[in-house]
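Hey,

Quick one before I head out. I ran the complex with nicotinamide-adenine-dinucleotide overnight. Inputs first:
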Amino acid sequence: MSQLSESAIRDVVSQVLAQMQSLGTMPNIQTRPGKHGVFDDPEQAVAAARSGFEQLQKKGWAARIKIVELVKQMCVDNAERWGQIEFNETKIGRLAHKPAKLQGVKNVLGPEYLTPQGMSGDFGITMDEAAPWGVIVAITPLTHSVPTIAGNIVNMVAAGNSIVFNPHPGGAAVAALAIDEFNEAIKAETGISNLLCTIEKPSLDSFNALCTHEDVNMLCITGGPGVVDAAMKTGKRAICAGPGNPPVLVDDCSALDFDRVARDIITGGGFDNNLLCIGEKQIIAVGDSYQKTLAAMQRQGAVLLNAQQLEAIKKEVFDFKNGVGCGTPVLNRKWVGANPDALAKIAGLNIDASVEMLIAETDANDPFVQEEQMMPLLPIVRANDFSQGLSIAKQSEHGDKHSAMIHTMNVARMTEMGRAMDTTIFVKNGPCVAGLGMGGEGFISFSIATTTGEGITTPRTFTRYRRCTLVNNLNIV
Ligand code: NAD
């Protein structure tokens, strides 16, 4: 019998280990001790997620349905606790609004949405089926760390995929905590391990390693312009849920209930201190509706800033590299999602912590109109007529094709604005959140694929369509 050298033995052992990993027979591939699916190394995370994908494939639809039910229920059960932990870590937004986002995950579409399409005729039968891609890398924002992760899980696992998350570094600890808890529950219910993986200390290096990894089949990006550009440059199939700057246009319409309009704007634009990408970011009011909206906003609890107060806040929350009024100001991210009372304090104004929104009169060129500032301070701009209002609204959205809102009883103007804006979400006579099924019809997702055009994501967004044809008269009719 020939003697094997030490290096040959090492080769055989590593081949066997690699085979076991790919077969999913080796649980917890160098995962952090006691943390299910939490990894330091992107390479390890992808290998683990590949094994998770193969385990899910073997367990079939029953496992997908079970996992989606589990994740939704855990979001409801842990809404307060995870909301508090996320708030403590990210330090942005409004604590009282955090649980609602997690509870909303129950309205994300699951496996029930994936119905195969069958065709039957003289030449036999054909099925078009929604197949999984495999391993998806998902990038999630600081603004909603666990809600985006949970919403992505529901859509992507419903479609039969596994996931590696590279969360925003500022929300990575709560992401790891939730992934660990989800995986532990999934393992207990289905026996599947590492279906969900995350990078414990995400970085640009881990982003690059994951997004260019040959064993990653698809990317899903939820974030601002920088990350969307970076992902699209990798050349991988990417679903991109990019930035927005949604305007709300209030028409000069005597039939409007302006208190209701104001309430809707505060509900959407004030939610989680304006962190929603769909949230109302600037008000454009036409003709007489300008004064009526301004008065109604204050009756509904918004605090109106004067010009000096606005200037003081502007100088703090934007960095004017070339001086005020020159060049593009850079957002000081320290103030993103800040409470209205904290913003007011910059201008020496003391207001109650319960105030949901600040408003200020500006022109259309103001940075608060032009930038996606994600603060509960809404600029209100006067337009002489509907046509001018629409052109201000369209310009301020910068072609992101994200979201827009209108308040009017004039159906022709609704249609005109809907066509002109060409946004993914267009809400008429309601708060922005109505476009995600909260106070309006429909379902929710925390990844609205604006840039790449898939829209509000569903399980179908994360599938490949495959056709299976059986030739000859084997159908029974
Ligand atoms: P962000 O762009 O700073 O970060 C988003 C994610 O991308 C994070 O994980 C971050 O670490 C990563 N990232 C940022 N720049 C990167 C780069 N150059 N290369 C690689 N990775 C990079 O955004 P944020 O502050 O976390 O979230 C707010 C932004 O996300 C807003 O622009 C908002 O409109 C957008 N958003 C969009 C949707 C949507 O569904 N369309 C949903 C939520 C948030």
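The chain is about 40% helix and 20% strand.

Talk tomorrow,
K.
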